């Protein structure tokens, strides 16, 4: 959050200073100064985000706040120009512009908090104060990156390929049996077993099996793994895993034999360590 606040506050101060200098020392009125400064903001900020993309949410809030700052300054200076032309005395304070400035300051603060919570979560004291303790044990996580195992809708061709693979998988009709050997507990070695049969019930023992356990709400704890064939039991594969937190986990598993790929999605629950 500190970086975001610094960039927002620093940008607003720089825009206000540039606007004031251009308005004071040029012959342009308030509206024209606002147009020039807005173009400068876009021309300077856009290349920087193209070089180092900060994320859509950070980009949107920065550009919005910067342009709103220019807009508010344009309103204030335009009103000043109008009073000057009408021969009225100039007033540097008015409740209307002040209310607009205060409103957008509140918007900046609230949106910065939202971005902080989404990216890094709250600190430990605030988390324990605001959020309940998890029923399954473990630590509370307050940031929300989400888990996206496969985002096939980013591009239409990727989605079409996904649909084709689903149809091929259904026609192949492999039989997949999976589960933990014994009780799976957090921070303890647990054995995960998979058995693969073709549609006729023949074991498939020459496949490559890999996957990842996905932690909802904290992608930093995702656990990729590979499974090894189990000796003396064709078609069976085994992996030993240590998952760090109790609670719900999502599983994405791939079984590959040659050019054939079979994908399984499931969920499981890990018990708290004893």
Number of strands: 7
**What would the average pLDDT be, to the nearest integer?**
81
Taken as a percent bin, the fraction of beta residues is 15-25%
Number of helices: 6
Please explain how this structure is put together.
The protein is an alpha+beta fold. 46% of the residues lie in helices and 21% in strands. It has helices at residues 2-25, 30-51, 56-85, 95-119, 124-130, 156-172; strands spanning 175-181, 190-197, 208-214, 223-229, 236-241, 247-257, 260-270. The chain has a seven-stranded antiparallel sheet, with no helix packed on it. α1 (2-25) runs antiparallel to α2, α2 (30-51) packs antiparallel against α3 and α3 (56-85) runs antiparallel to α4 (95-119). The two termini are 37 Å apart.
Concise structural overview:
The protein has 274 residues and is an alpha+beta fold. The protein folds into two domains: 2-128; 168-270, Immunoglobulins (Immunoglobulin-like, Sandwich). It has six helices and seven strands, in the order ααααααβββββββ.
Itemize the secondary structure elements and their pairings.
Blueprint lengths: L1 H24 L4 H22 L4 H30 L9 H25 L4 H7 L25 H17 L2 E7 L8 E8 L10 E7 L8 E7 L6 E6 L5 E11 L2 E11 L4
Antiparallel strand pairs: 1-2, 2-5, 3-4, 3-6, 4-5, 6-7
Write a concise keyword list for the protein shown above:
single chain; 274 residues; alpha+beta; Immunoglobulin-like; 2 domains; 6 helices; 46% helix; elongated
């Amino acid at each position: 959050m500190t970086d975001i606040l610094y960039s927002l506050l620093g940008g607003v101060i720089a825009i206000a200073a540039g606007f004031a200098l251009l308005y004071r020392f040029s012959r342009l009125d308030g509206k024209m100064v606002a147009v020039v400064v807005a173009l400068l903001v876009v021309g300077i900020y856009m290349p920087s985000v193209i070089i180092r993309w900060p994320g859509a949410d950070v980009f949107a809030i920065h550009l919005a706040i910067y342009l709103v700052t220019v807009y508010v300054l344009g309103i204030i200076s335009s009103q000043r120009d109008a009073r000057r032309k009408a021969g009225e005395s100039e007033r540097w304070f008015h409740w209307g512009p002040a209310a607009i400035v205060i409103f957008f300051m509140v918007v900046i603060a609230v949106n910065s908090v939202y971005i902080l919570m989404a990216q890094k979560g709250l600190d430990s004291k605030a988390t324990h104060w605001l959020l309940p303790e998890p029923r399954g044990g473990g630590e509370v996580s307050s940031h929300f990156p989400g888990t996206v195992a496969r985002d096939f809708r980013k591009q239409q061709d990727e989605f079409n390929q996904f649909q084709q693979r689903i149809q091929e998988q259904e026609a192949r009709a492999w039989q997949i049996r999976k589960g933990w050997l014994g009780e799976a507990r957090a921070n303890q070695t647990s054995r995960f077993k998979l058995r693969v049969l073709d549609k006729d019930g023949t074991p498939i023992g020459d496949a490559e099996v890999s996957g990842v356990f996905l932690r909802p709400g904290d992608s930093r704890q995702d656990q990729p793994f590979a499974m090894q064939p189990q000796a003396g039991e064709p078609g069976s594969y085994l992996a030993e895993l240590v998952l760090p937190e109790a609670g719900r986990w999502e599983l994405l598993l791939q079984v590959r034999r040659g050019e054939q790929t079979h994908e399984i999605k499931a969920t499981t629950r890990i018990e708290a360590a004893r």
